[in-house]
Amino acid sequence: MDGTNFEYFVSTKGPFIVVSLLGRMNSKAVPMLNELMAELGLNGTATVLVFNLRDVSEIGGDALQVFAQIQKNARARPAELRLAGVKPELKTRLLTEGIIRTSELFDNLQAAIMAQAKPVAKKA
Fold it and tell me: Which end of the chain is more exposed for a tag (fewer CB within 10 A), N or C?
């Protein structure tokens, strides 16, 4: 991965789905992000969805819209959403635009996985 392309990997274990995102999330990444959104929609058993953004070098506007929808879908699931390894410049942008919540941020993947699980409200 040279930072000019985008790819993702999904790993599922117990209550966790860990999605590792790598490279540039720009307009070229939108089809893959849509594929990811569909893939995540098929696994309804996980209660914690962790996005590892450590290797994301940028997020463009088109990709940001799809990523925001993926997160919205996860919150509606209901599932606890955690974001790990977000670079400072991306973190500022995502927080400013209301895409992520401070309570969902973790310094690294290990911290996101080891964090105490919060009770997830069930829909009536």
Answer: C
How far does the chain reach from its first CA to its final CA, in angstroms?
44
Residue 27 token pair: 């307009």
Two tokens, residue 80: 């606890």
84 contacts 53 by C-beta, under 8 angstroms: yes
60 contacts 67 by C-beta, under 8 angstroms: no
Q: What is the mean pLDDT of each run of 10 residues along the chain (124 residues)?
A: 77 91 94 90 77 92 89 82 92 88 93 76 51
Task: Please give the model's pTM, rounded to 2 decimal places.
Answer: 0.84
DSSP class of 124: -
Q: At what angle do helices 30-42 and 61-76 cross, to 10 degrees?
A: 10
Query: Which phi and psi angles does 6 have, rounded to 5°?
Result: -130, 140
Between CA 86 and CA 81 the distance in angstroms is 14
